[in-house]
Amino acid sequence: MKSLKTLFTSLVLSLALAGTAIAAEKVNINTADAATLDRVLVNVGPAKAQAIVDHRKSNGAFKSPEQLALVKGIGLKTVEKNRDRIVVGGARPAAAPKTVATAAPKQVARR
User: Fold this and answer.
1) Which residue, 28, 74, 87, 94, shows the most beta carbons closer than 10 Å to its own?
2) Does pTM top 0.85 for this prediction?
3) Cβ-based neighbour number of residue 28 at 10 Å
């Protein structure tokens, strides 16, 4: 009976941990402010978050998560710990103008 209780407890704990891993918040490193970077990224405090923002302003948008390692104080280990939280993208492109589709003219049957 004790082993059944241990098994059940382990199962519940595993599901709880899996749920938090799945629900990890994501952050776009090209658009987020320092406070958001600080809150979402693991092992990134306020100073490193501000360094990310400053690097982005000086050097342009990041093209990959690995480029975070170019920021002073951020290494590849930190990038790997945060890989599932990092989104790389630029500003949203402007919406394309809507086009009106024209239907082909109906052909009239001739007799």
Assistant:
1) 74
2) no
3) 17
